[in-house]
């Protein structure tokens, strides 16, 4: 008994690319492209006219609604449809945004036709799909965000006075200079600096200053 064809919709604003991709996918008889669309309006019309596909191959950058915005909308309206991003852009920010929006996979446009076909089939079968390279980028982005969230939480633990002192510390001022500026004793500044180090889990002024600058706190005091 023949397997049922995988139904999909291709969304890309370049007609030549999406028509070529359609021919590539349909050539083997395993896939049925219900429709192609150049953007959001055509996508919604296609879904109303042809029903729900199992997979949407989605470009990232398009005029009007981006592929990431459309992916978010699809997840909200038809969560059973699985979106695979197909794009020329491999930067971690786009990959991370696409996966957070609900995409199950992320393919670069320079991959082989066989890899595209295999990815669509796996997506239709419910598997998450990321190439090793893309997965590594995503893991790095997750880790960067996790570290930044941790740092921001530590920063939120500072008192207003400690935050004020950290801003001055980030400009390179000494304890004595900070004390004069804030009209407090040098010893009081030292006590605050020790508390800042403890809360930020750092052990010197340079690391504290770098953390302050990284989170946008330094340089304006």
Explain the layout of strands and helices.
Layout (H helix, E strand, L loop, with lengths): L5 E6 L3 H12 L4 E7 L2 H11 L4 E4 L8 H11 L4 E6 L4 H10 L3 E4 L4 H12 L4 E2 L1 H25 L3 H11 L4 H8 L3 H15 L4 H10 L7
Parallel strand pairs: 1-2, 1-3, 3-4, 4-5, 5-6
Structure description:
The chain has 10 helices and 6 strands, in the order βαβαβαβαβαβααααα. It has helices at 15-26, 40-50, 67-77, 92-101, 113-124, 132-156, 160-170, 175-182, 186-200, 205-214, and strands at residues 6-11, 31-37, 55-58, 82-87, 105-108, 129-130. α4 links the parallel β4 and β5. α3 (67-77) runs parallel beside α4 (92-101). The termini are far apart. The model has no long low-confidence stretch (mean pLDDT 87).
Structural class call reads alpha/beta
End-to-end CA span: 74 Å
Strand order of the largest sheet: 2-1-3-4-5-6
Taken as a percent bin, the fraction of beta residues is 5-15%
Number of helices: 10
Structure at a glance:
The chain is 57% helix and 13% strand. It contains ten helices and six strands, in the order βαβαβαβαβαβααααα. The longest helix is centred in the middle third of the chain and has 25 residues.
């Amino acid at each position: 008994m023949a397997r049922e064809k995988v139904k999909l919709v291709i969304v890309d604003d370049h007609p030549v690319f999406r028509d070529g991709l359609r021919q590539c996918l349909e050539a083997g008889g395993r896939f049925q492209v219900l429709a192609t669309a150049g953007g959001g309006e055509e996508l919604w019309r296609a879904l109303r006219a042809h029903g729900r596909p199992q997979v949407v191959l989605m470009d990232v950058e398009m005029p009007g609604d981006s592929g990431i915005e459309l992916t978010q909308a699809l997840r909200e309206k038809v969560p059973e449809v699985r979106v695979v991003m197909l794009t020329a852009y491999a930067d971690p920010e786009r990959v991370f945004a696409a996966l957070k929006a609900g995409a199950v996979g992320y393919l670069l446009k320079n991959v082989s036709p066989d890899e595209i076909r295999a990815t669509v089939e796996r997506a239709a079968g419910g598997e998450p799909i990321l190439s090793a390279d893309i997965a590594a980028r995503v893991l790095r982005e997750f880790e960067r965000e996790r570290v930044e969230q941790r740092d921001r939480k530590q920063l939120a633990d500072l008192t207003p006075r400690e935050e004020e002192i950290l801003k001055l510390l980030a400009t390179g001022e000494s304890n004595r200079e900070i004390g004069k500026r804030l009209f407090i004793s040098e010893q009081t500044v030292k006590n605050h600096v020790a508390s800042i180090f403890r809360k930020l889990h750092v052990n010197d002024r340079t690391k504290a200053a770098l953390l302050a600058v990284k989170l946008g706190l330094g340089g304006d005091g």
